[in-house]
Design goal:
By secondary structure, the chain is mainly alpha-helical. It is built from 4 helices and no strands. The radius of gyration is 21 Å and the shape is elongated.
Amino acid sequence: MIRRPLLRCHGGKWRIALWIISRFPPRRVYNDLDSDIVNLFRVARDQGAELRRELALTPIRFFYRGEANNV
């Protein structure tokens, strides 16, 4: 466990870091520059059962041979 910062900087929030973190929302927040990753998490969250069903019906060779990019 880190007990103090490697470098101190003026205005750093090291001393109140735990207090700041305790005020974060209780759920995870996904923020990624790749919108496809963000979309995947949204679909998994909102339509998880349907996504599992669709993935179970998708032949795995479809992805290994690169055919997914040609659809």
